[in-house]
Amino acid sequence: MRAALIGVAKRYGEREVLRGVDWQIHAGERWALVGPNGSGKTTLLRILAGKEEYDSGDLRRARALRVATVPQEDLAGVQSSARTYLLKAFDQVLKKEAELERLHKDMAEGDHTQATLNAAAEIQDWLLHHGGYTYEMELERCLLGLGFTVEDGARPCRSFSGGEQMRLKLGRALLDPADLLLLDEPGNHLDDTQRGWLGQFLRESPRAFVVVTHDPEILEGAVDHVAFLLDGKLYTFRGDFASFQTQFEEMQKSRERAYDQQQAFISRTEEFIRRYKAGQRSKQARGREKVLSRLERVEAPLRGPEGFALRLTFEALTGEDVLTVRDLKLSLGPSQLHVPKLDLKRGQKVALIGANGSGKTTLLRALTGETAPLEGEMRWGTNVLLAHYDQHQRKLPHGDTLFNTVGNLLKTPNREQIMSHLGAFGFGGARAEQGVGSLSGGERARLHLLAVLLAHANVLLLDEPTNHLDVKAVEMLRESLQSYKGTLVLVSHDEEFLRSVVDQTWAVAGGKVRAAAHYDPRLLEIPAPKVERASAPRPAPPKSRPAASKSPEPVPAKKGAMSKNERFRAEKRKADAEAAVAKLSAEKSALEKRFSDPDAVFQEDWRALHERFEKLKKQLESAEEEWLDATTALEEDDALRGGG
What are phi and psi of 11, to 5 degrees? Predict the structure, then answer.
């Protein structure tokens, strides 16, 4: 066992985030941790990592357990190279290498004692089994998989963009040869290709890991266990993500049936008590009161957050010409981004697309005045009220509560309206009184997005707004942007999301920005420049070979009629299945009658009764399938005999 939570509970003020969570993670297990926004997934990961205290319960971890998480350090001021930064993941290997080098030096200077030879042999064996001879290859593989070049490894960390720095930190966690890997939304700063690589990396990883993500592309085939967190409780499932979805639906149906049946029983019993408590049957009524008081209540079906419509409004219209850009040049560290011509008209919705690190965020920051251009002209139109969501900025009042923050943005004292907005972004219930300063990074990102959307702006610049949102919140955002009457520039790697919202394209590729009056991701397919090379003799084309004659496909032999013994066995199968169906149907009908009669379940274990009912249904379904198979086989045999 790598780690275990036993009855762990955690509160933030009045809000109970975790309620008696039990969870065991064993060596080699691959877990997805899922749940609605704000359900406590990040808190649970931090407790597992030993980075956050809990109020009660117990956390047990294997002795000398090494846990890897994405580092929280800021790389903006780090002068060392990306390669040096990533090599920190192999600190143990590097120490062993240095120790082996020292021993080799001693041996070269004449130390040939058995102790020195044994120590060197031990270290060599350790390195062989702990990646000592492959870590350079793994580092390069990680750089390439996360969208860098091998040459990027020599660049200082501070020279990378914010999104690139996040990818470097993710790479550091992936390379760490830890016993347990914990990843919180690792796909947020990755494009489609990089997310595909991450999914493949996790599929091939021999380590135990827990990954929090809403991205099925990463989860597909990568996990063999799923933990679902809702209302402070954790529900665990064995199998891949697709299997979890099926199991969860079945669990929901089963719980709903059991809950509805028990609620009907409770309602009938309470009605009996009200009717006869003071009459001749008062003794029976008091008996039923005792039954209700001892009845173990079936939990209601799990309910996720309800749907919510967010209407984006503004007061003043912009002029027809919202933005004009001519011959803009921006610095991208060692290179430049050239923006020859952009015209943004009122009401247009533009997709700003391009590979990670191509300059999309830099362009948005230049448009907002946060980054000064090297040269060129940029002019905003009249009556422009701009709101910019940059996932790396958190311009929020840290000293205030979430409720007051959103109330001030909505400019309304209507508590129900404020709570609806908070709930849609995962801050419902008691969380409304939580301080902004206590939020995690992902939670601050969601609140910052909500603040931008509620800013009553007629121009929105949104940089990866779907990061940190669950499926329902993404759908809510899609509908809000579709109905938005203002002007929008949207950065996203989700092509389906873009297609459903935008009507224009700005594509960043090859150091330039190109525009199209419709959504066209093909603008990114810039042909590589032709390189003149010395002519070399072309290899002779392979000699053509005569096509091999296609062998005829074998014709399946015609199935004959059953033998006498086969016919006898099929008839017996059918008779046995008929008897089983009759017996199970009768028992199922009897249980259904007991469910409908309050008097029949006074002395019953309601949960055991329901479990028996569910088991009967499955047995009946299996018996019916057996009868159908046998009947079909006999009918086919009859047809063969008649046709023969």
Answer: -120, 150
Write out the DSSP string of 314-332.
-SSPPPSEEEEEEEEEEEE
Q: In what order do the strands lie in the sheet with 208-212?
A: 67-69, 180-184, 208-212, 30-34, 225-230, 233-238
For residues 285 and 272, the answer to whether their CB atoms sit within 8 Å is yes
β-strands 504-509, 349-354: how paired? parallel
C-alpha 558, offset from chain centre: 51
d(CA 438, CA 431): 11
According to the model, what pLDDT value does residue 559 have? 52
Q: Which residues are paired to 449 by β-bridges? A: none
Helix locations, 440-563, DSSP H: 441-453, 471-483, 495-501
Beta partners for residue 3, in sequence order: 25, 61
Which residues have CB under 8 Å from 546's CB, separation 6+?
none
pTM for the model: 0.59
Q: CA 88 to CA 82: how far, in whole Å?
A: 10
* Residues in the chain, overall count: 644
Angle at the Cα of 637 from the Cα atoms of 552 and 639, rounded to 5 degrees: 85
**Euclidean distance between CA atoms 503 and 348, whole angstroms:** 7
> How high is the mean pLDDT in each 10-residue block of the chain (644 residues)?
89 83 92 83 90 91 89 84 92 91 90 89 89 88 91 90 88 92 87 86 91 80 89 88 81 82 87 82 83 79 60 87 92 85 92 86 88 90 89 65 81 73 74 76 80 88 85 84 92 88 90 88 63 39 39 45 76 83 79 57 55 77 79 76 58
Say how far apart CA 642 and CA 635 lie, in whole Å: 10
Burial profile 49-59: b = 16 or more Cβ within 10 angstroms, e = fewer: beeeebeebee
Q: Which residues of 332-354 are buried (b: 16+ CB within 10 A; e: fewer)?
A: beeeebbbeebebebbbbbbbbb
Q: Name the packing angle between helices 241-276 and 606-643 (round to 10°).
A: 120
Please give the Cα distance from 341 to 336 (Å, whole number).
Answer: 16
Quick check: 78 and 158 in contact, CB under 8 A? yes
Of 331, 316, 598, whose CA–CA distance to 458 is shortest?
316
What is residue 532's predicted lDDT score, i.e. its pLDDT? 38
Query: Are 484 and 316 a contacting pair, CB within 8 Å?
Result: no
Please name the helix (run of DSSP H) or strand (run of DSSP E) that holds residue 365, with its range, or none. Answer: helix 360-367
Beta strand pairing call for 3-12 and 56-61: antiparallel
CA quadruple 22, 24, 25, 29: dihedral, nearest 10: -110
Hey, what's the torsion of the CAs at 339, 340, 341, 342, to 10 degrees?
Answer: -10
Per-residue pLDDT, 59: 92
Beta strand 349-354 with 487-491: parallel, antiparallel or unpaired? parallel
d(CA 497, CA 192): 13
Kindly write down the DSSP assignment for every residue of 73-113, as one continuous string: ---TT--SBHHHHHHGGGHHHHHHHHHHHHHHHHHHTT---
Instruction: Tell me the two tokens of residue 341.
Output: 């011509």
Strand partners, 212: 33, 184
Residue pair 509/354 in contact (Cβ under 8 Å)? The answer is yes
Backbone φ and ψ of 7, nearest 5°: 60, 35
Q: What are phi and psi of 391, to 5 degrees?
A: -60, -10
Query: Vertex 92, ends 91 and 93: CA angle to 5°?
Result: 90
Q: At what angle do helices 114-129 and 91-108 cross, to 10 degrees?
A: 150
- 37 neighbors 469 (Cβ within 8 angstroms): yes
CA distance 492 to 512: 18
SS3 159: helix
